Amino acid sequence: MSGESGLTHFDAEGKAVMVDVSAKPSTTRIAIARGRVVMAPATLETIRQGGIGKGDVLGVARLAGIMGAKRTAELIPLCHPLPLSSVKVDLVPVAPDAVEIEATAKTTGQTGVEMEALTAVSVAALTVYDMCKAIDRGMRVEGVRLVRKEGGKSGLWEAP
């Protein structure tokens, strides 16, 4: 038995369970998340010039983010596996010292895709770090956050 709303991760004994969303209607759901990797200006310049020995950093990170979104339910306990209709990951170098990352995840289903968008950004950021760590171990992943979600009972939400 779950809480009043029926949407809780705990049963009557307080044990963790996956939320039962079977009574919820399927709607189009979209989530957008953002984050950034801050690095030394020289590292960003090396990325821009294609000088990282492991290959195209932004291209590989884009693909990794998409793949990460598709595997979110395997990574986050109690997260529902979702049939994603699209995932888009953009990485943009921003002078003097950062790569901005934005991910958009979309599905038609009974629960939202916020976790998929957040996972896409996180995996893309970690991929940038992994590919560049040999020249800049001081990089930082910052500001990973949900900035917009649409659909479902709560409708539209945008970060202030």
Q: What this model shows, in words?
A:
With 160 residues, the chain is an alpha+beta fold. The protein has a single domain, classed as 2-Layer Sandwich (Alpha-Beta Plaits), CATH 3.30.70.640. Helices cover 28% and strands 30% of the residues. It has four helices and five strands; from the N terminus they run E-H-H-H-E-E-H-E-E. The chain has a five-stranded antiparallel sheet, covered by helices on one side. Helix 2 (57-70) packs antiparallel against helix 4. It is elongated, with a radius of gyration of 18 Å. The relative contact order is 0.25.
Q: What are the salient characteristics of this protein?
A:
160 residues; elongated; five-stranded antiparallel beta sheet; single chain; 30% strand; alpha+beta
Summarize this structure briefly.
The chain is of the alpha+beta class. It has helices spanning 41-48, 57-70, 72-75, 114-132; strands at 27-38, 84-94, 98-109, 140-150, 157-158.
